Amino acid sequence: xxxxxxxxxxxxxxxxxxxxxxxxxxxxxxxxxxxxxxxxxxxxxxxxxxxxxxxxxxxxxxxxxxxxxxxxxxxxxxxxxxxxxxxxxxxxxxxxxxxxxxxxxxxxxxxxxxxxxxxxxxxxxxxxxxxxxxxxxxxxxxxxxxxxxxxxxxxxxxxxxxxxxxxxxxxxxxxxxxxxxxxxxxxxxxxxxxxxxxxxxxxxxxxxxxxxxxxxxxxxxxxxxxxxxxxxxxxxxxxxxxxxxxxxxxxxxxxx
Length: 256
Hints:
Blueprint: E1 2-5, E2 12-17, E3 23-25, H1 43-47, H2 60-65, H3 82-95, H4 98-112, E4 121-127, E5 141-147, E6 151-157, H5 175-184, H6 186-190, E7 196-203, E8 218-223, H7 224-227, H8 233-249
Parallel strand pairs: 6-7, 7-8
Antiparallel strand pairs: 1-2, 2-3, 4-5, 5-6
């Protein structure tokens, strides 16, 4: 057990430490930017508060403490959590004023070379039909999505983890392969008015996804730091501090 300063600079918080040196907040909400979201925790976060077996404490005290709030450990508590940073960027946009979503969408679409949206939907952690098994209800989970009247952007969010491989019916496809397969076929059938499809990788560096061969769906990458420039200015300052805090206290990126 140890204490670290919260990214807001207003208090110190207790964190548990895993056997591998990963820090986790005792309260999962202490690892998340709220930014005025009125319903707290929001439904998307409750969905993510399931028990995880990916924790072994450095000490027995770490094991007990990390389970104090929920009765179990959930991955949102980890300072390595990509779900935590995904919420912290996109959750406040979803529940905040329409102007925030519009501003973020305009800047993001402009950077991607997409038509300016007149209306926008932003969502988190929705499943799409599996491109190889359309009858399955367990298709790929999209980390975040942006949808306008003519454009769809699927987001793949990473922090320390690598792009998932060994997927698909034959176990020979990656996360990107499955998303491209959906966007290039089933997605266009489901949304015939969407003429522009993109997959956006977001990570500690702008190298999450391969952009070499993408068919009619284009693929781009940005870092979380680069994504800050698309955010409404009212959110940017706290998110800048949050990203610095995560970089300071989370594990080093593999290979770095």
